[in-house]
Design brief:
The protein is an alpha+beta fold. The protein contains 9 helices and 7 strands. The relative contact order is 0.24.
């Protein structure tokens, strides 16, 4: 299963070449001998903030794992107790944007936690978000954006980040409106396209002697 790890913004194309595509298989296992915890990291290409579909992807990410009431958190934290705080987010860089998932889990539940993560990704890609989920994260996204820019320092930091990818204050002023206009169908389409398990590169850092066997029962391991 191959695929590009990064999307490239028009601004970045003028400066440098995009990263080469990378292979999504096998899982990369990095040994941290005798570790009592494993670090799970999954990543895939995402939309930049220039893309008209970005607000829908932002909302889809929140539903999956971007805030406390997300599906992924409900599964591996609240229901299974595998981790204290799983999180998914969208990172923006010069060469593009990436969707990332991260969680710290006890060594003995490394494979079960990964299995449940892949299950939630597949379920999210196949079963669309509900209207209630979309409205909840919409209000959360608009509210947290307002809070993050309520101080001079927060506003300056946000504007600096936008300026780095060629966006100005007008993007920030208009983004709440874009979030408000994103439809249920658009969010569902973003979930189906960007959260398919086969898109993600997976890295696990942990005690390889303990976790390799259980992980190999789920997927191929390097």
């Amino acid at each position: 299963m191959g695929g590009a790890c990064r999307a490239v913004s028009p601004i970045a194309e003028q400066r440098s070449q995009p990263f080469a595509p990378c292979e999504n298989d096998p899982l990369e296992l990095v040994d941290r001998a005798d570790s009592v915890q494993s670090s799970l990291r999954l990543a895939a290409s995402a939309l930049t903030r220039h893309d008209d579909r970005y607000p829908a992807l932002q909302l889809a990410n929140l539903i999956f794992g971007g805030y406390f009431s997300s599906r992924w958190t409900e599964n591996i934290r609240e229901d299974k107790g595998y981790t204290y705080g799983p999180h998914s987010g969208i990172d923006h860089h010069t060469l593009g944007s990436a969707l990332h998932l991260q969680a710290e889990v006890a060594t003995e539940v490394t494979a079960p936690a990964l299995l449940e993560t892949l299950y939630e990704l597949g379920r999210f890609a196949l079963l669309p978000p509900t209207p209630q989920e979309v409205e909840s994260v919409r209000q959360y996204a608009i509210g947290t954006l307002a809070l993050s820019t309520a101080t001079q320092a927060g506003l300056a930091s946000t504007l600096a980040g936008l300026a780095g990818v060629g966006l100005g204050p007008e993007w920030l002023a208009e983004h709440p409106r874009r979030l408000a206009k994103a439809t249920l169908d658009e969010v569902a389409a973003a979930a189906a396209e960007f959260f398919a398990p086969s898109r993600f590169v997976t890295v696990v850092v942990g005690d390889a002697s303990t976790v390799r066997g259980p992980l190999s029962a789920i997927t191929s391991v390097a």
